[in-house]
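Sequence of Transposase DDE domain-containing protein (Candidatus Enterovibrio escicola).
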Amino acid sequence: MLLPHSPLGIVFVDLSKLQVCHNLRIIINDQGGIISVKVTTVNVIDRRPVSKMADDLWGCLYGDEGYISDPLEWELADKGVTLITGMKKNIKPKVMKL
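Predicted 3D structure, token representation.
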């Protein structure tokens, strides 16, 4: 059973490799409840399924550096979701909108 998104608007996205040549992509809320799950083949880019998985979210979505993408950031912003990631060493810092 998937849980509703966090009442605080704080969710996290991550990827885990499965033994059967697939990746498990998961979005959880701030209490560890599963909001969205998607299994993809290994050759799918990390950030590609995230926009669709985040259709019913709002607030802040935290992910690692693999989710850095201007198009993804814009798609999520249109849905009311702020993407927050770590920084890659070769990328200049950006000002974050509040």
